Amino acid sequence: MRRFFPMPTRLAWKVWQRNRDVFFKTYLVNFLPPFVEPVLYLLALGYGLGLFVGEIDGVPYVSFIAPALLAISMMNSSFFECTYSSFVRMYYQKAYDAMVATPLSIEDVIAGELLWGATRSLIYTTAMLVVLIAFGVVALPSSLLVIPFSFLAGLLFSGIAMCFTAISPSIDTLNYPAFLFITPMFLFSGTFFPLSVLPGPIQVFAMAVLPLAQVVTVSRSFTLASVSLPLFLYSIAWIAVVCTVLFFVSIYLMRRRLVV
Amino acid sequence: MQGSEETTEGKRGDNRIRSPIIRARDLVKNYGNVRAVDTISFEVMPGEVFGFLGPNGAGKTTTMRMIQCVSPPTAGFLSVFGLDVKDHPAGIKRWLGVVPQETNLDPDFSCRENLLVYARYFDIPAREAQKRADELLAFMQLTEKADVPIDGLSGGMKRRLILARALINNPRLLILDEPTIGLDPQARHMMWEKLKALQAMGNTIILTTHYLEEAERLCDRLVIMDAGRVLVEGRPADLVRRYTGDEIVESENSPQVLACLQEMGCRYEVHGDMVQAFSDQPRVLARRILETCNPGRVFVRRGTLEDVFLTLTGRELRE
Predict the structure, then answer these.
(1) Of the partner residues B71, B86, B121, the one whose CB lies closest to the CB of residue A99
(2) What was the pLDDT predicted at B8?
(3) Is A93 on the interface with B (CB under 8 A)?
(4) Per-residue pLDDT tens digits for A41-71
(5) Residue B255 class from Cβ within 10 Å (0-12 exposed, 13-18 middle, 19+ buried)?
C-alpha cells in the first residue's frame, strides 16, 4: 500500500531532529526576528498609525493587529523554511540524497521537513507572544491557545510551501509564490484592516480560499478572547482539512520529483 | 562465478555455498523514452570487490541507484541480501554504506557531527555512535579535523569523511560511486589505501570508476558497460589477456609500417600518430617491425585495462 500512498514513518523525526540541531546551533541569529519584528510593528503601526485609526470594531488598533502579527509570523516562519531553505537542502546541499541512502524514505524526509516547518512556527510564535504579553496587548489566558494552534497553522503553510518547492524548477521561481501569493495575503487577510471594508465578492473569496484569513480569524478569537463561533469553527475546520490534504499532496509531489 | 573463486578461495573460503549479496536478472531502467539500463544480469558474491566501468551514459550510476533502492527498476529482477528491492527498501538500506558521486556532506555540521547525525538515521544509540564516529575518524586520519566545519576540509578529506559516514552502520555492502573523483594523486592513493584495508577485512564492495588503474588495483571482478548494456564481465587480468594479450606492440604510424603490418597479416589499430599491433608473440613481432619496416621507434608494453576498455567501447568522445 505504501508504494501508492505516501505514508511516512516515525523516522521522520530523525529529519526533524537534524533541523532542530542546526537551528539551536545558531539560535542567537534565529531568535532575533521574533523578538524584534513585533516590537517594530507594534510601535510603527499599533501606536503610530493607531493614533489616527483609533478603534476597529470597538477594539484598540494595537490589539486588532497583534493577532495578525502572530498569524503572519506563523505563515512566514514555516513558508520560507519549506520553500527556500528546503530547496537549498534538496537541490544545492543534496541533503535528501544523503538521507534516503539510509533507512529513511523520501516520505520520511519530507514529513520531517514539514514537521520542522510547523515547529519553527511554534517557536517563533511563542517568542512573539511573550513580547505581545509584555506590551499587554493580548488577553490572558486565552492567548496561550495560540501556541498549540501555531503548530497546526505552521503545518498548513509548510504543506503549501512544500508543494511549491516540489514543482519549482529553480530557486528563483520560488519568488512567484512569495510575491504573488504570500505578499498579497499578508495585506488582504483581515490583518491590518477588517475584511468587512472590502467589496463583498472579495470578502467571500478571502474567506473561501486564503489560508491566512482563516489563521487570522482563529488567532484573533484567542487574543481578544471573543469568539464568533460559526466563523471560528469554519476556519478551524478549513485549516484542519486543507492541512491534512496538503501534507500528503506535498509528499506525493516531492516523491514524483525525486524518485525517478 | 567460477573465475572469482581462485582469488577468493584462500581468504574467504566457501563462496560456492554462500548466496550472492546482489543478484540482478534482466534488469531494465527507462527514463521516459530513454533506456538507461538495458537488460543486464550480474551477481556479486560476499567479500568481493566488483567494479562497474564504462563511458559517461553507460548506465553505471543508474545501476547503483537501483541497488541502493532509491530508483525503482522498470523491469527485471534485483535482489540485495536476498531481499527484493521493490518490497524491502528500508530493510536493505539498513545494511548499505553509500559513497555518492557528489559530495553531499551536511555543511551545517562539523566532521564528527556529520557522522553522529547520520548515525541517528540508522537508529544507532548515541553512545555507540560516539564510539564509532571516533574510531572512523581515526581510521580515515581525520581525528584532528573532528570539530572543523565541512567548508574547512580539502577535497580528499571530504571524500574520506564520506567514506567514514558510509561505514557508520557497519554495512554489509559498500556502494562507491566514483570514490576518488576529482582528487589529486596523493589523495587518491590515500583513498585506495583505505579501500584496500576495507577489502582485506572482507567487506563486499561495488564501485564505479572512470579510472581504469583504480579498477585494476581494486576490483576482483568487473563489468564493462556501454549504452546501458554489459559488454564483458571478468577478472581484470583475464580481460586484459583475452582482449589485448599480455603485451602490446606500439609503433610510429607511417605508411611503411602499415604496409609492413598488412603484409605480416597481424591485427592492428591506428590511433592518431601511433599504431598498436597485437600478437601472441609481441616481442618477436616488435623485432620484425624494427628489422624490416624502418619505424621511427617501436616498443612493447604491458596491456592494460584501459586498452581493453578502449577496444570495447571505442574512442569516440562521450558527452
Answers:
(1) B121
(2) 39
(3) yes
(4) 988 988 899 999 999 989 999 999 999 999 9
(5) exposed
A226 three-state secondary structure: coil
Q: Which pLDDT does position B34 carry in this prediction?
A: 93
Torsion B69-B71-B72-B78 (CA) sign? negative
CB contact under 8 Å between A95 and B106, yes or no, is: yes
- CB–CB contact B120 A17 (8 Å): yes
Kindly identify which residue of chain B lies nearest to residue A100, measuring between CA atoms: B70
Q: Domain B247-302 - what CATH class? A: alpha beta
Q: Which of A77, A72, A48, A82 is nearest to A62 (CA)?
A: A48
Q: Write out pLDDT tens, residues B199-246.
A: 899 899 999 998 888 999 899 999 999 999 999 999 999 998 888 877
Q: Where are chain B's structural domains?
A: 2-235, 247-302
State the ipTM, two decimals.
0.90
Class of CATH domain B2-235: alpha beta
What is the average pLDDT across B50-58? 92
Residue B2 pLDDT more than 50? no
Pairing of strands B49-53, B205-209: parallel
Domain boundaries, chain A: 12-258
CB contact under 8 A, B70 and A100: yes
Chain A to chain B Cβ contacts (< 8 Å): 59
Which A residues, 162 through 191, put their C-beta within 8 Å of a C-beta on chain B?
Answer: none
Distance from the first to the final alpha carbon of chain B: 34
